[in-house]
Amino acid sequence: MNLFAIPSPSSLWTTVRSGGAINAACSFAALWALVKVLRMLRWRVKTTQLRGPPRTSLVYGVSRDIGSSHDRAATYERWATEYGVAYMTPSVLGQTNIVLCDPKAIAHFYARETWTYVKTPLTLAFLESSVGKGLLWAQGENHRRQRKALTPAFSNAAIRKLTSVFYDSAYKARICGKWDTAIESSKDGDAVIEVQNWMNHISLDTVGIAGFSHDFGSLDGKRVSVAEAFNTFGSNQPSAVHKAFILLASVFPIILKMIPNKRQNLFKKLGITMEQISNELLIRSRREKDASMSQGGEENSLIGLLSQDAELHMSGEEVVAQMKVLLLAGYETTSISLTWALIELSRHSDVQTRLREELLAFGPDPTYDQLKANLPYLDAVVHETLRLHPPVPESTRLAAEDDVLPLSEPVRTMSGNMTDSISIAKGTLITISIPAINRSLAIWGPDAKEFKPERWLTEDGISGKAKEVQGHRHLLTFVDGPRACLGKDFAIIEFKTVVSVLVKNFVFEMRDGPDTPVEVVRGILLRPRVVGEDGTGVPLKVRRYE
């Protein structure tokens, strides 16, 4: 008998018909089910069973309720009030999330991120398809290596040199000139301007020049393919079918590749567009850097600084991925924060007036060091905006190994016992709602929901509980630990320069009065929108400050 003979198609068909394939499939299914059962039993034994909201759907648990909520942070906070600073929520197809609302547990969690707590398979699949295997995607030693290579490009010295770029993108020679034209052509000395679109332009041109020594020309009205790709998300809100699709993909990530949908296709298109632009800019940056260095010039762009050293420690694919991350983060998060700042200043004319007085009294445009140390009310407005409106709403991670989370206050378990620590089994999902912590009444006090920059100006303005939150200025906006936002200082200095220029030159009001309702809709991240507007429209009444 020839043991290596290749069976004919007819003989294979006969084998399949005889039940071999069916038996194999059944055996595989039985093995998969056994593994799932054993893992579930281990999880139940190893994980502290906490109280939490009851399941509202057999398939989705409470995940669909959270996703459809107009204020997810308020939902998480309400459950924390009812069940304690750590609780369980039933999720998709029998999964369970542990939600942390305790500063001590959160600090422990973030300190062990990328090693003990890792990104979920769904998150990794999404990041790989959209921005590649860069810093956002990397974990463990790979993440440590990439972050170390990138750190010099985001040093204080590097950002100090970029401050003039931030001013250039906001100054009246460009945006102010265009706004002046609209105001002068109006009858009553003010104009209604859709500010979110302009904040997008500022953010894109800034990250282009500061990041890649390239002016996209968005403020000058040029069509920019990556901006068009970004903007399609605001005008294409996720459907109910897409939301259900994503929930199921949290259990079966392969769904992302197997079943196409409109929004997923938008992300793929965005990823391709960003990759094309990143490759073009990288080639141009290397060419210009070589020319500049041969003439004794100095490299100031982030990608130029990055490529001087980081390319020795990262592959070409990783360098391009970092550029895509810089494009995405520099555009999306900054423009969202700037838009929220203008909304809050329009709602609170007294805050806007006080900020303008501080800026005008200071005189000329502040330097990098002055922006950091000499304008306390500007600093307070910026951080109060970041507290109330963090661009990234949640962290959800998977425990890669067993762990024990300490708590600052005890919680009641499902059995009725009190515990001051939680045992976590490998495979457990952990969720932290960033705005829920930033706005928590229990942590920030009775005025936690108010826009109140003054809280940052006095020693007792921040409550004792808030001081337990480990993160930049006791906020989770930039998270903490090994994954703390590398571009934090870049973002804050850009934020301050743009706000200072705009507030010194213009007065902002809500078009329909200070009580105009504003909702949150999904672009790539969550964006503000005046209720009733299309896309992500935020029309404000703007006039020149005399």
Automatic annotation (TrEMBL):
<feature type="binding site" description="axial binding residue">
    <location>
        <position position="485"/>
    </location>
    <ligand>
        <name>heme</name>
    </ligand>
</feature>
<keyword id="KW-0812">Transmembrane</keyword>
<keyword id="KW-1133">Transmembrane helix</keyword>
<dbReference type="GO" id="GO:0004497">
    <property type="term" value="F:monooxygenase activity"/>
</dbReference>
<dbReference type="GO" id="GO:0016020">
    <property type="term" value="C:membrane"/>
</dbReference>
<keyword id="KW-0479">Metal-binding</keyword>
<dbReference type="GO" id="GO:0005506">
    <property type="term" value="F:iron ion binding"/>
</dbReference>
<dbReference type="InterPro" id="IPR001128">
    <property type="entry name" value="Cyt_P450"/>
</dbReference>
<dbReference type="GO" id="GO:0016705">
    <property type="term" value="F:oxidoreductase activity, acting on paired donors, with incorporation or reduction of molecular oxygen"/>
</dbReference>
<dbReference type="InterPro" id="IPR050121">
    <property type="entry name" value="Cytochrome_P450_monoxygenase"/>
</dbReference>
<keyword id="KW-0560">Oxidoreductase</keyword>
<keyword id="KW-0408">Iron</keyword>
<dbReference type="Pfam" id="PF00067">
    <property type="entry name" value="p450"/>
</dbReference>
<protein>
    <submittedName>
        <fullName>Cytochrome P450</fullName>
    </submittedName>
</protein>
<keyword id="KW-0349">Heme</keyword>
<dbReference type="GO" id="GO:0020037">
    <property type="term" value="F:heme binding"/>
</dbReference>
<keyword id="KW-0472">Membrane</keyword>
<dbReference type="InterPro" id="IPR002403">
    <property type="entry name" value="Cyt_P450_E_grp-IV"/>
</dbReference>
<comment type="similarity">
    <text>Belongs to the cytochrome P450 family.</text>
</comment>
<keyword id="KW-0503">Monooxygenase</keyword>
<dbReference type="InterPro" id="IPR036396">
    <property type="entry name" value="Cyt_P450_sf"/>
</dbReference>
<comment type="pathway">
    <text>Secondary metabolite biosynthesis; terpenoid biosynthesis.</text>
</comment>
